[in-house]
Write a structure and sequence with these properties.
The protein has 188 residues and is of the alpha+beta class. Helices cover 21% and strands 35% of the residues. The chain contains 4 helices and 7 strands. Strands 2-3-4-5-6-1-7 form a 7-stranded mixed β-sheet, with helices on both faces. β3 and β4 form a beta hairpin. The radius of gyration is 17 Å and the shape is globular. 26% of the residues are buried.
């Protein structure tokens, strides 16, 4: 009889904050800075998605999608339930966001971020607004997002400033596989 061995993990405690926006922002949209372009990636390959996810989320402990097999990831990001939008500078991707439509009345901003070399250069707020406007263009009853204490420290304040309201915060213990080689904060 064979025995299955559990995969070695490090347990990481994070506080996850769930937010919702129930009406489109009233303030005029911020323009994405000149020279940058937001492109909907109509049929994002799993390989390109992994590149974006790892490059944007690596510093912030984005690990869950890294554990998916190729077929699982392809199913997870398949249109029309999910759309991937890239932010480009001179043909190079510098950020992305992902919108999910798993509930009939809502659009969820599942992932949003910039590559580390772009953070702090005045791109985040207009790019976030573009993501929010894209979500509202589908006429949902509400738009949701969540963030956690492993994300960039400005994530939660930026979401609140953009018009999202906090619903609740919950403590989660994440079993981050050691094989991913990610830097993890100590468990608390």
């Amino acid at each position: 009889m064979s025995t299955l061995m559990a995969e070695p993990v490090v347990e990481v405690a994070v506080d996850v904050t769930f937010l919702r926006m129930e009406a489109p922002p009233a303030a005029p949209a911020l323009a994405v800075p000149e020279g940058l372009q937001v492109v909907r990636i109509r049929h994002c390959s799993a390989g390109f998605y992994r590149y974006l996810y790892d490059a944007v989320g690596g510093p912030w402990l984005w690990w869950m999608r890294r554990t998916l097999s190729q077929p699982e990831l392809e199913r997870t990001i398949a249109p029309p339930r999910v759309s991937i939008h890239g932010l480009y500078a001179d043909g190079e991707p510098i950020g992305f966001y992902e919108l999910e439509r798993r509930l009939p009345d809502a659009v969820n901003l599942a992932y949003f971020g910039l590559m580390p070399h772009v953070i702090g250069k005045g791109v985040g707020k207009p790019f976030l607004r573009q993501a929010i406007d894209t979500a509202w263009a589908e006429k949902p009853r509400y738009v949701t997002v969540n963030t956690c204490t492993a994300d960039h420290p400005r994530a939660l304040p930026n979401y609140v400033e953009a018009g999202f309201e906090r619903l609740r915060t919950m403590r989660e213990i994440w079993p981050v596989p050691l094989r991913l080689g990610m830097t993890t904060p100590p468990a608390t």
